[in-house]
Design goal:
This protein is an alpha/beta fold and 130 residues long. The protein contains five helices and six strands.
Length: 130
């Protein structure tokens, strides 16, 4: 099943002393997409870019399971979250994607984009679904 993946090992050695520093020349960047990395590091990058008008990012099952508190603190400051359907179910605790989306939107992001493999993607906002 190409829509499901299993994380066999996640080795955080590279993050042990990693402290991302954003060049001051990026300070006026309006858009910030935070890639799949430890939530505290995503938050650190976002805090260094206060001028960003649109902020969002990606996550994965490892961060949802093992760094949940950090992740929840991070995504509550985001405009959008981009995850797949299994991650949406895992993060929300809901099996139904519509219910999962409403739960996740209650965590802070204004928009949730759920990737569904060969079925495309779904975009959720509080009062709409696309």
């Amino acid at each position: 099943d190409m829509n499901d993946r299993t994380t066999l090992v996640t080795d955080l050695n590279v993050f042990a002393d990693f402290d991302p520093k954003i060049p001051s020349s990026y300070g006026d960047t309006a858009y910030l997409m935070l890639g799949n990395i430890q939530p505290a590091l995503q938050r650190s990058v976002q805090q260094q870019m206060p001028q960003a008008r649109l902020v969002g990012g990606d996550t994965m099952n490892f961060w949802i399971n093992d760094f949940r508190a950090q992740l929840l603190d991070t995504i509550r400051h985001w405009d959008f979250l981009l995850i797949n359907d299994s991650e949406a179910r895992l993060l929300s605790g809901e099996k139904n994607l519509k219910k999962a989306a409403q739960t996740i939107l209650g965590m802070g992001p204004k928009t949730l984009i759920v990737k569904r493999g060969e079925y495309g993607a779904m975009l959720f906002q509080r009062d709409s679904l696309f």
